[in-house]
Amino acid sequence: MKLSDAKATLTFSDGRPSVELPIYQGSIGPEVIDIRKLYGQTGMFTYDPGFLSTASCQSAITYIDGDKGELLYRGYPIEQVARKCDFLDACYLLLKGELPTAEQSREFHKDIANHMMVHEQVRYFLRGFRRDAHPMAVLTGLVGALSAFSHDMHDVSNSEHREHAATLLIAQIPTLAAMAYKYSRGQPYVYPDHSLSYAGNFLKMMFATPCAPYEVNPVLERAMDRIFILHADHEQNASTSTVRLCGSSGTNPLAAVAAGVACLWGPAHGGANEACLNMLETIQREGGVAKLGEFIAKVKDKNSGVRLMGFGHRVYKNYDPRAKLMQETCNEVLGELGLENDPLFALAKALEKVALEDEYFVERKLYPNVDFYSGIVQRAIGIPVNMFTGVFALARTVGWFAQLNEMLEDPEYKIGRPRQLFTGSQRRDIA
Ligand code: ACO
Questions:
Q1: Nearest to 203 by CA among 383, 24, 76
Q2: 278-283 contacts: CB < 8 A, separation 24 or more?
Q3: Residue 91, CA distances (Å) to 58, 60, 247, 323, 363 in order
Q4: 323 CB less than 6 Å from ligand 1?
Q5: What is the Cα gyration radius of the chain?
Q6: To test the ligand 1 pocket, which listed residue (235, 307, 363) has its Cβ within 8 A of the most ligand atoms?
Q7: Which pLDDT does position 157 carry in this prediction?
Q8: Averaged pLDDT score across all residues of the chain
Q9: pLDDT tens digit string along 238-290?
Q10: pLDDT of amino acid 140
């Protein structure tokens, strides 16, 4: 980051001395006011619940321009990454900063394929879960458990160890996610297959059974790969910030990522595509397109507590660029599967149209986010609704590692320790 010539001056209306604060510039995006010495200089904290105005770190991985609706991975627009790279090349880009050469790409694909099979003991660990456990509860547990399988190999101060941890989990998370699904169905686990792509492997491990041959459908394979690319990283979102905060204590990197999986589960974050599909199914059950007006009225009524899931984003105040790419994939998948007239897809399209033209959403700059269409695609592929967030976690694993490693390599990194504005009881004594 570059120190700006300009400085910010903080003045107080009650005569306290003013304070000069340095300003830093990034390569693009808003400048930041450096408040690190503010407490020392004034005895005051800043107050910013939800970090609406706070840059928690410097980062060179992902850039979002929320007003333009632009998303860059290491400088490359998401549209180009989605159309010209496969997911593993995108992973390489996020982790290492540059796209791989053909040779590096081959090596990375091979390395990931070689690590996809999980320790056989993992299947016994799974047995401890109820069959009806939510897959995200299972996945949080499994990722946390992996730290126990390799703790000695993961000294966080060693960059090679960190690279190994990233390779290991990027390779194994599809296997773990598919195992969580197979367990819930009571079906045998399917081992990874070196002859298949990363996305192809995930489909096979999810849907193959020993009873019949399984052919990976290339359209669905490409759709899966695109879902992974679009969810691979997204700057300092809640789960990524969780991984950074958790990892800032120097904990095992796989344990830090398990914390990210737990955070992602929530309906305001990764759970939104599950919530979005549940919402569409409810509207469908209650009358479909004919009942849209009633539903939108409920969304606009603050007392109803109903939100239009798949709409709105903390950063994008324009169309989420990932939503456009997902819509493209959605058309392709529904076409391939002969589901163009799928009533839920028609309902989603009608809902999008109504919302985009409604004053309430226009005024608040609420546009569809990636989750609006990703649920429909996954449902068409046959992924059960409660696995959607697991697919998101699978894809985001690379982003979590890229961000965690960046933090641990930053000489300015410190254990995360926010402060507070205390509003509780002052000191008092027990009578
Ligand atoms: N439906 C209806 N109203 C909404 C919605 C929505 N989906 N999102 C925001 N609003 C309204 C709020 O009620 C508020 O209105 P007000 O100004 O009259 O009080 C205004 O828009 C601003 O909303 P905030 O909650 O302050 O916006 P914030 O940036 O904090 O929230 C969030 C972002 C959590 C994503 C929100 O838009 C939401 O809940 N969306 C639905 C869930 C969802 O799709 N999440 C996925 C996020 S993307 C991802 O994780 C990949």
A1: 383
A2: 278/309, 278/385, 279/308, 279/309, 279/310, 280/344, 280/347, 280/348, 280/351, 280/375, 280/376, 281/344, 283/347, 283/351
A3: 20, 15, 20, 20, 37
A4: no
A5: 23
A6: 307
A7: 86
A8: 94
A9: 999 999 999 999 999 999 999 999 999 998 888 888 889 889 999 999 988 88
A10: 96
pLDDT value of residue 150: 79
Q: What are phi and psi of 380, to 5 degrees?
A: -65, -35
Cα(60)–Cα(26) distance, rounded to whole angstroms?
9
User: C-alpha dihedral over 339, 341, 343, 347, to 10 degrees?
Assistant: 110
Phi-psi region of 192 (alpha: psi -120 to 50; beta: other; left: phi over 0): beta
pTM across the whole model? 0.92
HSE-up (13 A, CA, CB side) for residue 110: 6
312 ligand 1 Cβ < 6 A: yes
Q: Which residue has 């060179």 as its token pair?
A: 60
Main-chain phi, psi angles of 19, to 5 degrees:
-130, 135
Q: Which among 228, 229, 203 is positioned nearest to 214, based on CA atoms? A: 203
Which residues in the chain show pLDDT less than 50? Answer: none
Q: Which residue, chain included where needed, has tokens 């737990």?
A: 262
User: For residues 263 and 257, what is the distance between their CA atoms, to the nearest angstrom?
Assistant: 10
| Chain Cα centroid distance, residue 418 | 23
Q: How far is the CA of 399 from the centre of ligand 1 (A)?
A: 23
Label each residue of 110-142 as H, E or C: HHHHHCCCCCCCHHHHHCCCCCCCCHHHHHHHH
How far apart CA 77 and CA 69 sit, in angstroms, is: 11
> Tokens in use for 28?
């693009």
